[in-house]
Amino acid sequence: MLKDLITVCQETDVSEDLQLLLINGISDYLQDCHLEFPQQYPDALQDLINEQYLIGWDQFMMGRPSKLWCSIHQEQLQRRGIAHTPFNSGPGWMTQLIRVIWKHVHAVWIARNLARHGRDLADQHLKQRQKCIDEIHCYYQYRSNNQLILSPDQETMFYSSFQHHLRFESELHQLQTWLCTYREVIESCKTDQSTVTTLLSDDASVETPSDSPTSSPTDPAMVPQHHSQSIKNDTIQFDGLPCAICIPQSPTSDICSTTACSQPTPPSESASLVNPRVVNSTHLHWKCPTDDYIDII
User: Fold this and answer.
1) What gap in Å lies between CA 279 and CA 67, rounded to an integer?
2) pTM recorded for the entire structure
3) Residue 274, beta-bridge partner list
4) Which of its termini does the chain have fewer beta carbons within 10 Å around, N or C?
5) Could you tell me the residue ranges of all domains in the chain?
6) Within a 13 Å sphere around the CA of 190, how many CA atoms are in the beta-carbon half?
């Protein structure tokens, strides 16, 4: 493409400075970088450099260059004593540049489509089949790397191995059917795995005290004093709280029961909140100012 652009510039009597700016600007854009050393160009081109930078060289490739290209080119032709013609004038020169650029961009697009989708039906069939095989192989790698959380029913989606899968389902329509059936399920299992991994990493980051001269490894004092909650034996335990957690009561009512009332327990280092399912059999009764007895179950 750059050779064709140089040919067009030579045929339309473009100055060397303007031609160099054009070729370097497009070349640097194709290499995904900005125009290098813009100060090396004459002062008459600095406004053009700044304006094209603000517009973007990608816009030049789309056929939207700065208008200063045409005006500067025509001024240089007039200064050099070259007659204006429809071919070498500013609009004529820019039209030819855009035509060359779009011709090469279209050729790249065609080459990309042929490489991705194939030239004929047979080649397209092979490309689609290979794409499905690569995706299924990726899912089998997720399973082997423990990146999926699967229930026993979901385990039946997979064969014992990827090679075993291709032995029984290798045709394009079979591979596409398998992906359409299980793709969303597998992706949801992968999302769940990422969430669980985060939770496990948070739990694993808890540190225990390094030295405790008066405590044994099984001593409750060895338990790290952090505000966490754990569920064990139908009891929710809160460690590190300053006092025991008591059941809230109304300020205008007393704790009543048909039998003896329970006495409040003194504060302890590890307070526990009894699960309501455990005290279901006791049926403690509370009396509120506006209600009859309410069973807490």
Assistant:
1) 84
2) 0.49
3) 235
4) C
5) 2-117, 121-201, 229-241+270-297
6) 14
